[in-house]
Amino acid sequence: WLFFFLSEKIKNKFGSMILSIGLSKLAYYVFKFGLLSVVLLEGSLISTPLVIQFIMMFIFSGYIFLIEKK
Question: What is the model's pTM?
Answer without folding.
Answer: 0.73
